[in-house]
Amino acid sequence: MGSDISGEKTCAGKPIKAAMRRFSADFLHGCKKFADLARSSTDEQDIRIFNSSSIINTACFLEAKINEEISIGVLCHGFEEDGPESKEWSTIQSLQKKLTV
Known about the structure:
The protein is mainly α. Helices cover about 70% and strands about 5% of the residues. Helix 2 (about 25-40) runs antiparallel to helix 3.
């Protein structure tokens, strides 16, 4: 994915948020889907499986959302080396690589 971080703050000719593939939305949709399946099921084992899947999708959603917001912050604010937010976004991005949710 090419990026153009000029004054319009675009990526691939679209606003940055529109150009990104938002995996967090997929995980959030999975949470709802598995919760609905658990609610409509009568089989106890299926209910446990669907509930577990919903919990796992929730954790994946949180990590994906955090990663997306950090990426947007770096692209929108962190690219200006002398910008007031550059150091903060650089620090957050470094921590992102070292830590896990």
